[in-house]
Amino acid sequence: MAREYPSTIAAPIENEIVIKKSRFIAHVAPAASPDAADEVIAGIKKQHWDARHNCVAMVTGLLGDQARSSDDGEPSGTAGVPMLEVLRRHELTDLVAVVTRYFGGVKLGAGGLIRAYSSAVSEALDRAVLLRRESLTRVTLEVAHADAGRIENVMREWAAQHGARFGDPTYGGTVAFELWVPAEQLELLRADVAATSAGVIVPVEGEQRIIDVR
User: Inter-axis angle of helices 186-197 and 145-161, to 10 degrees?
Assistant: First the structure.
């Protein structure tokens, strides 16, 4: 079975909710590393310099194994950790969430703060475009020019039907076709190429790559 990886988001999102006159502005942005997340955080703190709190949660790493959160002056455990739990619940990585709070004069209590910070992030994620991540293997097919047109048509259709990606052909003494193929489809590809070419074409497997897929 192919390994599953946490998803990420395609683009930054902003969402605001108002609870008892306090404004909670959620900013959720892609961040491929803790340093990238810190840049996002610094930018938002600069933008909202006059806010009482800019609370943070981030998850990074291919497997989502790096995480950090901050309550930024809110009572311990009422902001950063609840925000982080939302990111974990959505099985996401390589992103950072910053919720800016402008205090409205009414205290919400610990439970109210947890709900507010969680809801701000959760509602922002409801509007996000998610990118699924999967591992693909590079497969090269060397084809004689006389057969290239027919094989290209067959392989393009095969790729579309089996979750693979078809790369740009390379022309030389032969034509080289490049496919990026999910691990669970490799055996089928070998069989289908053999059947299509009467055993003449032998797929050559190469590197693996993790890619983002809408």
Answer: 150
Looking at residue 147, its amino acid is D
Q: Residue 45 belongs to what H/E stretch?
A: helix 34-47
Q: What is the pLDDT of residues 190-207, one digit of tens each?
A: 999 999 999 999 999 999
CB atoms under 10 Å from CB of 47, counted, come to: 14
Model's pTM, two decimal places? 0.80
Q: Which of 4, 61, 65 is nearest to 31 (CA)?
A: 61
Coil, strand, or helix at residue 93? coil
- Cβ neighbours of residue 15 closer than 8 Å, sequence gap 6 or more: 25, 26, 28, 120, 123, 124, 127
Q: What is the DSSP letter of 210?
A: E
